[in-house]
Design goal:
The structure holds 2 protein chains of 2 kinds. Chain A is mainly α. Chain A is 66% helix and 3% strand. A two-stranded antiparallel ribbon of chain A has the order 1-2. Chain B is an all-alpha fold. Chain B has 9 helices and no strands. Classes of the chains: A mainly alpha, B mainly alpha.
Chain lengths: 224, 187
Amino acid sequence: MPPRAAKKAAEIDVRTDRELVYAAREHDMLAFDALFYRYKDGIFRLGLAITKDPSAAEEIVVDTFTRAHRALARLEPEGSLRPWLYRVAVNLSYNRRPRKGLVISTLEDATEEATASDERSPSSLAELAELRRVVLAAIDTLGPKHKVVVVLHYLNGLNLAEIAQVVDCPIGTVKSRLHYALRRLRAHLAAHPELGFEPDAAGVATPGRMPLAAVERIRGGHPE
Amino acid sequence: MLCGITQQRIAALLAGAASERERLEVESHTAACARCATAYRDLIATSVALDRAFAGLRRASVALSPARVRLAMRVPQPVPASLRFSRVLARVNEVALAAAVTAFAFVGAGSVAPKHAITDEATAPQSDVLTPNMHVGISGDDQSFIRWFRIGRYATPSDLLDPAVSPRSAVKDDVQIATPERAGLLR
C-alpha cells in the first residue's frame, strides 16, 4: 500500500485503542500507525508545553511510541491508551536535559505560528499575544507537579480522572493541585491590570472585565 | 457549606468534574459568602485566561511519520508466515555457498591451476618456414648486451662489488695507485 494511502487508512481507523493494541501485537503495522496518528499531536503539544523546544517535542513523540511498541506485549488498555502514552511523554519531558543554546523556537513562537491564521482585528490579536505571554510566563513559575496538571487539563483537555491516571495519584490530589496552581497563577496575573486583573484593597486579586464573560463561558460548558 | 469544601469544589467545577448538585451548592454558598465569591470569580478568570492562552497551541500539529518510530526502534520488519520457510532456505543456501568458496580457496586452487612450462625464447626452436630464408641468430654484440643486462638485473650486491664484474671498483683501484702519498703509506 502506498504511504499516503496507508496514512489515510490509519487516520480513519475506527477500531478502539484496545483492538489496535491487540492487532499491533500480531505485527499489524497499520494498527500501530493508527495509534500513532491518533495521539502524535497531543503528545507533541504536551512535550512542547513542558520543554518549550519543538525539536525536543518531536523526539519525545518518537521516543514515546518507541516505548509503546516495546511494551505492546504487556499493554492492556481498559479504555483509551492516552493516559499511558501521556504518562510516558511527561516522564520523558521532565527527564530530558535542556539543550543549551540549541532552542530553535520557544513555546510562544510556536503558539503564535498556530494563531497566525486567526481572522481577528490587530488590537485583539495583540491583546491575546500579551495575555499568552503573561500566562505562559506565570505557568513557568509553577513546580512540575502543578504545571503538568494545568497543561494536561487546559492544553490537552484531559478530565480529572484521566489526569489522575497520567500522574498516578488520586483524583482528590489532582483537584488540590489544580486549585493550588490556579491560585498561584492568579497571584501572578494580578500584577497585570492591563489584562483585566486588578488587585483589591487587601492585595487579593479580583477580576476586572474578564469574569463577566468567563462566568457565562463556564456555565456554558468546559472547553474540549 | 464550609468555605474549605467550597474551595475544593470550585476547582472540580472549573475542571468540569463537579455534578450539577455540587455546582448549585457552590453557587448558593458564594451568594452568601463574599470571600468565597471573590475566590470563585478569581479562579474563573484565571481559568479563562489559561484557556485563551493555550488556544493557539491546541491547534499545533507535527508532521511526523510512523516510519520514524520504526527507524528509531531498529528492529527488522515483521516477516509473514508464508515467507519464513523461504527465508530459512535462502540462509542455508548462503552458508553452503560461503563454505564452498572457502574450501576452493584453501584446497582446490593448487590442484586445478594450470602448470605453465618455462621456456627460454632465445633457445626455443625456430619456425621451419623462417629458418631457411632469414638469419635470426644472435650476433656477438647482442650476446654481450644480454649478458650485461642479466648481470645488472639479476646480480646480487656482492656480485657487483666484485672487481671482475663491476667496472666501478676497477676505477677506484686505479685512483689509489695513482696517488703517490697513498702509495707511500701502503708501503
